[in-house]
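re: ur msg from earlier - yeah i can do the 6-O-phosphono-beta-D-fructofuranose complex, just paste it... oh wait u already did. ok heres what im feeding in:
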Amino acid sequence: MAHKILVATGGGDCPGLNAVIRGIVKRASLEKEEWKIYGCIESFNGILKDDVEIVELTEEMVSGLHVKGGTIIKTTNKGGPFHFPVRRQDGSWEMEDRSTLMKRRFENMGFDAVINIGGDGSQRISLQLLNIGIPVVGVPKTIDNDLSSTDFTFGFQTAVQIATEAFDKLVTTAESHNRVFIMEVMGRDAGWIALHTAIAGGADVCIIPEIPYNPEVVAKKIETRYKDGKGFCNIVIAEGAKRVGGDVVGHAPTAVGDRHIKLGGVGDVLKQELVDLGVGHDIRVTVLGHLQRGGTPVAYDRILATEFGVKAFELVKEKKYGNLVVYRHPEISYVPLEEAVKEPHLVRYDDYLVHTAKGIGMVFGDESI
Ligand code: F6P
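and the outut:
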Protein backbone atom coordinates (compact mmCIF):
# COMPACT_ATOMS: atom_id res chain seq x y z
CA MET A 1 0.00 0.00 0.00
CA ALA A 2 1.19 3.50 -0.83
CA HIS A 3 2.48 5.81 1.87
CA LYS A 4 0.51 9.03 2.07
CA ILE A 5 1.53 12.54 3.14
CA LEU A 6 -0.85 15.43 3.69
CA VAL A 7 0.70 18.82 2.87
CA ALA A 8 -0.75 22.12 4.11
CA THR A 9 0.33 25.75 3.66
CA GLY A 10 -0.77 28.04 6.50
CA GLY A 11 -0.61 31.74 7.41
CA GLY A 12 0.08 34.55 4.95
CA ASP A 13 1.23 33.45 1.51
CA CYS A 14 4.92 33.72 0.76
CA PRO A 15 7.07 33.38 -2.38
CA GLY A 16 8.55 29.87 -2.39
CA LEU A 17 5.58 27.90 -0.99
CA ASN A 18 5.04 26.23 -4.37
CA ALA A 19 8.75 25.41 -4.64
CA VAL A 20 8.52 23.52 -1.31
CA ILE A 21 5.50 21.58 -2.57
CA ARG A 22 7.36 20.73 -5.79
CA GLY A 23 10.43 19.62 -3.78
CA ILE A 24 8.31 17.24 -1.67
CA VAL A 25 6.52 15.70 -4.66
CA LYS A 26 9.65 15.31 -6.78
CA ARG A 27 11.69 13.82 -3.95
CA ALA A 28 8.90 11.39 -3.08
CA SER A 29 8.67 10.22 -6.70
CA LEU A 30 12.26 8.97 -6.57
CA GLU A 31 11.44 6.36 -3.92
CA LYS A 32 11.13 2.67 -4.79
CA GLU A 33 8.06 2.36 -2.60
CA GLU A 34 5.02 4.34 -3.63
CA TRP A 35 4.43 7.67 -1.90
CA LYS A 36 1.36 9.73 -2.63
CA ILE A 37 1.34 13.41 -1.75
CA TYR A 38 -1.93 15.23 -1.08
CA GLY A 39 -2.61 18.91 -0.69
CA CYS A 40 -5.02 20.02 2.03
CA ILE A 41 -6.83 23.00 0.51
CA GLU A 42 -6.68 26.32 2.40
CA SER A 43 -4.43 25.17 5.19
CA PHE A 44 -6.22 22.60 7.41
CA ASN A 45 -9.66 23.81 6.37
CA GLY A 46 -9.54 21.16 3.64
CA ILE A 47 -9.70 18.35 6.18
CA LEU A 48 -11.85 20.21 8.73
CA LYS A 49 -14.71 21.39 6.58
CA ASP A 50 -17.93 19.40 6.24
CA ASP A 51 -17.05 18.84 2.55
CA VAL A 52 -13.45 17.67 2.66
CA GLU A 53 -11.14 19.31 0.08
CA ILE A 54 -7.97 17.33 -0.43
CA VAL A 55 -6.25 16.91 -3.81
CA GLU A 56 -3.54 14.53 -4.92
CA LEU A 57 -0.43 16.43 -6.04
CA THR A 58 1.05 14.69 -9.05
CA GLU A 59 4.40 15.25 -10.72
CA GLU A 60 2.66 16.91 -13.68
CA MET A 61 0.92 19.32 -11.34
CA VAL A 62 4.16 20.49 -9.75
CA SER A 63 6.19 20.72 -12.94
CA GLY A 64 7.70 24.21 -13.22
CA LEU A 65 6.04 25.28 -9.99
CA HIS A 66 9.22 26.58 -8.32
CA VAL A 67 8.86 29.79 -10.34
CA LYS A 68 5.25 30.52 -9.35
CA GLY A 69 4.37 32.74 -6.38
CA GLY A 70 1.56 32.07 -3.90
CA THR A 71 0.45 28.54 -3.13
CA ILE A 72 -1.51 26.22 -5.42
CA ILE A 73 -3.16 24.61 -2.38
CA LYS A 74 -4.34 27.97 -0.96
CA THR A 75 -3.77 29.28 2.52
CA THR A 76 -5.44 31.15 5.35
CA ASN A 77 -4.27 32.89 8.50
CA LYS A 78 -7.60 32.42 10.26
CA GLY A 79 -9.00 29.58 12.27
CA GLY A 80 -7.27 26.19 12.35
CA PRO A 81 -8.04 22.75 13.85
CA PHE A 82 -8.32 24.11 17.40
CA HIS A 83 -10.31 27.28 16.53
CA PHE A 84 -12.47 26.40 13.57
CA PRO A 85 -15.10 29.09 12.85
CA VAL A 86 -18.63 27.67 12.77
CA ARG A 87 -21.75 29.73 12.04
CA ARG A 88 -24.52 29.55 14.66
CA GLN A 89 -28.18 29.56 13.67
CA ASP A 90 -28.54 33.20 14.72
CA GLY A 91 -25.82 34.15 12.19
CA SER A 92 -23.05 34.73 14.74
CA TRP A 93 -19.81 32.72 14.81
CA GLU A 94 -18.26 30.46 17.39
CA MET A 95 -14.90 28.75 17.45
CA GLU A 96 -15.02 24.99 17.56
CA ASP A 97 -12.20 22.59 18.43
CA ARG A 98 -12.18 20.23 15.43
CA SER A 99 -8.85 18.57 16.22
CA THR A 100 -10.46 15.24 17.15
CA LEU A 101 -12.36 15.25 13.87
CA MET A 102 -9.13 16.04 12.05
CA LYS A 103 -7.31 13.15 13.70
CA ARG A 104 -10.13 10.75 12.90
CA ARG A 105 -10.23 11.80 9.25
CA PHE A 106 -6.44 11.77 8.98
CA GLU A 107 -6.35 8.17 10.23
CA ASN A 108 -9.35 7.00 8.22
CA MET A 109 -7.80 8.34 5.03
CA GLY A 110 -4.62 6.41 5.80
CA PHE A 111 -2.16 9.28 5.99
CA ASP A 112 1.32 8.60 7.42
CA ALA A 113 2.13 12.21 8.27
CA VAL A 114 1.43 15.90 7.78
CA ILE A 115 3.94 18.38 6.38
CA ASN A 116 2.85 21.79 7.62
CA ILE A 117 4.48 24.72 5.81
CA GLY A 118 3.98 27.94 7.75
CA GLY A 119 5.24 30.59 10.14
CA ASP A 120 5.26 30.72 13.93
CA GLY A 121 1.46 30.50 14.30
CA SER A 122 1.30 27.50 11.96
CA GLN A 123 4.16 25.76 13.72
CA ARG A 124 2.39 26.20 17.07
CA ILE A 125 -0.50 24.35 15.45
CA SER A 126 2.00 21.68 14.25
CA LEU A 127 3.08 21.21 17.87
CA GLN A 128 -0.53 20.94 19.06
CA LEU A 129 -1.25 18.36 16.35
CA LEU A 130 1.81 16.39 17.40
CA ASN A 131 0.58 16.47 20.99
CA ILE A 132 -2.72 14.85 20.00
CA GLY A 133 -0.86 12.10 18.15
CA ILE A 134 -0.69 13.33 14.55
CA PRO A 135 2.81 12.82 13.10
CA VAL A 136 3.95 16.21 11.81
CA VAL A 137 6.99 17.73 10.16
CA GLY A 138 7.09 21.54 9.93
CA VAL A 139 8.64 23.74 7.25
CA PRO A 140 9.32 27.38 8.22
CA LYS A 141 7.95 30.12 5.96
CA THR A 142 7.56 33.84 6.42
CA ILE A 143 8.69 36.93 4.60
CA ASP A 144 9.36 38.46 8.04
CA ASN A 145 12.26 36.03 8.75
CA ASP A 146 11.24 36.00 12.42
CA LEU A 147 11.74 32.31 13.27
CA SER A 148 14.71 31.83 15.57
CA SER A 149 15.69 28.26 14.74
CA THR A 150 16.57 28.90 11.10
CA ASP A 151 19.12 31.32 9.65
CA PHE A 152 16.61 32.28 6.95
CA THR A 153 13.06 31.51 5.94
CA PHE A 154 12.24 31.39 2.23
CA GLY A 155 10.31 34.42 0.96
CA PHE A 156 12.41 36.87 2.95
CA GLN A 157 14.97 37.57 0.22
CA THR A 158 12.18 38.09 -2.30
CA ALA A 159 10.45 40.58 0.00
CA VAL A 160 13.73 42.45 0.53
CA GLN A 161 14.38 42.52 -3.22
CA ILE A 162 10.89 43.89 -3.94
CA ALA A 163 11.21 46.49 -1.18
CA THR A 164 14.69 47.53 -2.31
CA GLU A 165 13.59 47.98 -5.92
CA ALA A 166 10.65 50.10 -4.72
CA PHE A 167 12.95 52.11 -2.48
CA ASP A 168 15.38 52.80 -5.35
CA LYS A 169 12.48 54.25 -7.32
CA LEU A 170 11.43 56.48 -4.45
CA VAL A 171 15.00 57.78 -4.09
CA THR A 172 15.07 59.22 -7.61
CA THR A 173 11.72 60.94 -7.21
CA ALA A 174 12.65 62.22 -3.73
CA GLU A 175 15.84 63.67 -5.19
CA SER A 176 14.04 65.27 -8.14
CA HIS A 177 11.37 66.92 -5.97
CA ASN A 178 13.45 67.62 -2.85
CA ARG A 179 11.00 65.52 -0.86
CA VAL A 180 10.99 63.35 2.22
CA PHE A 181 9.77 59.85 1.44
CA ILE A 182 8.57 57.43 4.09
CA MET A 183 8.31 53.86 2.81
CA GLU A 184 6.35 51.48 5.05
CA VAL A 185 7.27 47.82 4.73
CA MET A 186 5.98 44.63 6.37
CA GLY A 187 7.42 43.37 9.63
CA ARG A 188 4.98 42.73 12.42
CA ASP A 189 7.39 42.11 15.29
CA ALA A 190 10.69 41.92 13.48
CA GLY A 191 12.41 44.66 11.52
CA TRP A 192 14.47 42.41 9.25
CA ILE A 193 12.82 43.47 5.98
CA ALA A 194 13.15 47.15 6.92
CA LEU A 195 16.76 46.81 8.06
CA HIS A 196 17.94 44.86 5.02
CA THR A 197 16.08 47.18 2.65
CA ALA A 198 17.42 50.29 4.39
CA ILE A 199 21.01 49.11 4.04
CA ALA A 200 20.59 47.81 0.48
CA GLY A 201 18.81 51.00 -0.59
CA GLY A 202 20.91 53.46 1.40
CA ALA A 203 18.14 54.92 3.58
CA ASP A 204 18.84 57.84 5.88
CA VAL A 205 16.47 56.59 8.58
CA CYS A 206 15.37 53.05 9.45
CA ILE A 207 12.63 52.50 12.03
CA ILE A 208 11.93 48.99 13.29
CA PRO A 209 9.64 47.41 15.91
CA GLU A 210 12.54 46.42 18.16
CA ILE A 211 13.84 50.00 18.58
CA PRO A 212 11.12 52.51 19.59
CA TYR A 213 11.70 55.85 17.87
CA ASN A 214 11.65 59.46 18.94
CA PRO A 215 10.14 61.61 16.15
CA GLU A 216 12.37 64.52 17.18
CA VAL A 217 15.45 62.50 16.27
CA VAL A 218 13.97 61.77 12.85
CA ALA A 219 13.08 65.43 12.36
CA LYS A 220 16.64 66.43 13.23
CA LYS A 221 18.09 63.97 10.73
CA ILE A 222 15.81 65.36 8.01
CA GLU A 223 16.91 68.92 8.75
CA THR A 224 20.56 67.88 8.67
CA ARG A 225 20.05 66.33 5.21
CA TYR A 226 18.61 69.60 3.90
CA LYS A 227 21.22 71.79 5.65
CA ASP A 228 24.03 69.65 4.26
CA GLY A 229 22.73 70.34 0.78
CA LYS A 230 21.37 66.87 0.01
CA GLY A 231 17.88 68.31 -0.23
CA PHE A 232 15.92 65.09 0.22
CA CYS A 233 15.55 62.30 2.74
CA ASN A 234 14.45 58.65 2.55
CA ILE A 235 13.01 56.72 5.46
CA VAL A 236 12.13 53.02 5.77
CA ILE A 237 9.69 52.11 8.53
CA ALA A 238 8.39 48.66 9.49
CA GLU A 239 4.62 48.35 9.95
CA GLY A 240 5.11 47.16 13.55
CA ALA A 241 7.20 50.20 14.61
CA LYS A 242 6.16 52.29 17.59
CA ARG A 243 7.33 55.57 19.04
CA VAL A 244 8.92 55.62 22.49
CA GLY A 245 6.12 54.97 24.99
CA GLY A 246 3.63 54.43 22.17
CA ASP A 247 1.82 51.50 20.63
CA VAL A 248 1.59 49.86 17.21
CA VAL A 249 -0.67 51.39 14.57
CA GLY A 250 -3.46 49.34 13.02
CA HIS A 251 -7.01 48.20 13.45
CA ALA A 252 -8.81 45.24 14.95
CA PRO A 253 -9.28 42.27 12.60
CA THR A 254 -12.66 42.15 10.90
CA ALA A 255 -12.51 38.69 9.28
CA VAL A 256 -14.02 35.74 11.17
CA GLY A 257 -11.38 33.71 12.99
CA ASP A 258 -8.63 36.31 12.57
CA ARG A 259 -7.07 37.06 15.93
CA HIS A 260 -4.27 39.40 14.79
CA ILE A 261 -4.42 43.17 14.77
CA LYS A 262 -4.11 44.41 11.16
CA LEU A 263 -1.04 46.63 11.15
CA GLY A 264 -0.68 49.56 8.81
CA GLY A 265 -0.51 53.32 8.87
CA VAL A 266 2.56 53.95 11.01
CA GLY A 267 4.14 55.79 8.05
CA ASP A 268 1.27 58.28 8.06
CA VAL A 269 1.51 58.64 11.83
CA LEU A 270 5.22 59.44 11.53
CA LYS A 271 4.48 61.97 8.79
CA GLN A 272 1.98 63.77 11.05
CA GLU A 273 4.45 63.72 13.96
CA LEU A 274 7.08 65.34 11.71
CA VAL A 275 4.62 67.97 10.47
CA ASP A 276 3.66 68.72 14.10
CA LEU A 277 7.34 69.18 14.90
CA GLY A 278 7.56 71.79 12.17
CA VAL A 279 9.24 69.84 9.38
CA GLY A 280 8.17 71.97 6.45
CA HIS A 281 9.37 69.84 3.54
CA ASP A 282 6.98 67.93 1.31
CA ILE A 283 6.59 64.52 3.00
CA ARG A 284 5.10 61.58 1.07
CA VAL A 285 4.23 58.13 2.33
CA THR A 286 4.27 54.89 0.32
CA VAL A 287 2.93 51.67 1.84
CA LEU A 288 4.22 48.58 0.03
CA GLY A 289 1.88 46.11 1.76
CA HIS A 290 1.17 42.83 0.04
CA LEU A 291 3.33 43.67 -2.97
CA GLN A 292 6.15 42.26 -0.82
CA ARG A 293 4.54 38.83 -0.64
CA GLY A 294 3.38 38.49 -4.22
CA GLY A 295 4.89 37.19 -7.41
CA THR A 296 7.86 35.08 -8.33
CA PRO A 297 10.43 34.08 -5.71
CA VAL A 298 14.01 35.21 -6.29
CA ALA A 299 16.57 32.48 -7.04
CA TYR A 300 17.75 32.28 -3.41
CA ASP A 301 14.24 31.55 -2.16
CA ARG A 302 13.57 28.98 -4.87
CA ILE A 303 16.71 27.14 -3.80
CA LEU A 304 16.01 27.32 -0.05
CA ALA A 305 12.39 26.28 -0.54
CA THR A 306 13.43 23.31 -2.68
CA GLU A 307 15.97 22.26 -0.05
CA PHE A 308 13.25 22.49 2.63
CA GLY A 309 10.84 20.41 0.55
CA VAL A 310 13.36 17.65 -0.06
CA LYS A 311 14.38 17.58 3.59
CA ALA A 312 10.77 17.56 4.82
CA PHE A 313 10.02 14.47 2.75
CA GLU A 314 13.18 12.77 4.03
CA LEU A 315 12.23 13.48 7.65
CA VAL A 316 8.82 11.89 7.09
CA LYS A 317 10.44 8.91 5.38
CA GLU A 318 12.77 8.48 8.37
CA LYS A 319 9.81 8.97 10.73
CA LYS A 320 11.55 11.93 12.36
CA TYR A 321 8.26 13.53 13.32
CA GLY A 322 7.85 16.52 15.61
CA ASN A 323 10.62 18.49 13.92
CA LEU A 324 10.92 21.70 11.97
CA VAL A 325 13.20 21.73 8.93
CA VAL A 326 15.76 24.52 9.34
CA TYR A 327 18.70 26.10 7.57
CA ARG A 328 21.73 26.48 9.79
CA HIS A 329 24.62 27.38 7.62
CA PRO A 330 25.95 25.34 5.87
CA GLU A 331 23.41 22.59 6.56
CA ILE A 332 19.74 21.97 6.02
CA SER A 333 18.86 20.30 9.28
CA TYR A 334 15.99 20.10 11.78
CA VAL A 335 15.06 21.05 15.35
CA PRO A 336 12.23 19.88 17.63
CA LEU A 337 9.05 21.94 17.07
CA GLU A 338 8.97 22.73 20.76
CA GLU A 339 12.33 24.46 20.56
CA ALA A 340 11.49 26.09 17.22
CA VAL A 341 8.47 28.05 18.49
CA LYS A 342 9.98 29.13 21.81
CA GLU A 343 11.30 32.53 20.83
CA PRO A 344 10.93 34.83 17.84
CA HIS A 345 13.97 35.95 15.87
CA LEU A 346 14.12 39.68 16.42
CA VAL A 347 16.69 42.31 15.54
CA ARG A 348 19.00 42.74 18.51
CA TYR A 349 20.45 46.14 19.22
CA ASP A 350 23.96 44.65 19.04
CA ASP A 351 23.30 42.91 15.71
CA TYR A 352 26.10 43.54 13.25
CA LEU A 353 23.58 44.84 10.71
CA VAL A 354 22.48 47.58 13.13
CA HIS A 355 26.14 48.34 13.77
CA THR A 356 26.75 48.50 10.00
CA ALA A 357 23.77 50.79 9.42
CA LYS A 358 24.83 53.11 12.23
CA GLY A 359 28.37 52.92 10.82
CA ILE A 360 27.18 54.58 7.60
CA GLY A 361 25.26 57.28 9.48
CA MET A 362 21.79 55.75 9.37
CA VAL A 363 19.46 56.88 12.15
CA PHE A 364 17.07 54.53 14.00
CA GLY A 365 15.25 57.19 15.97
CA ASP A 366 16.75 56.20 19.32
CA GLU A 367 19.81 58.48 19.12
CA SER A 368 20.26 61.42 21.46
CA ILE A 369 19.24 64.79 20.09
O1 F6P B 1 3.71 37.45 8.71
C1 F6P B 1 3.84 37.92 7.45
C2 F6P B 1 3.05 39.17 7.23
O2 F6P B 1 3.32 39.55 5.93
C3 F6P B 1 3.31 40.32 8.23
O3 F6P B 1 4.44 41.06 7.92
C4 F6P B 1 2.04 41.11 8.14
O4 F6P B 1 1.78 41.84 9.32
C5 F6P B 1 1.01 40.05 7.96
O5 F6P B 1 1.65 38.98 7.33
C6 F6P B 1 -0.17 40.55 7.17
O6 F6P B 1 -1.00 39.50 6.86
P1 F6P B 1 -2.45 39.60 6.20
O7 F6P B 1 -2.56 40.90 5.55
O8 F6P B 1 -2.50 38.48 5.24
O9 F6P B 1 -3.39 39.42 7.32
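cool cool. The first helix runs from residue 17 to 29. ping me if u need the other ligands too
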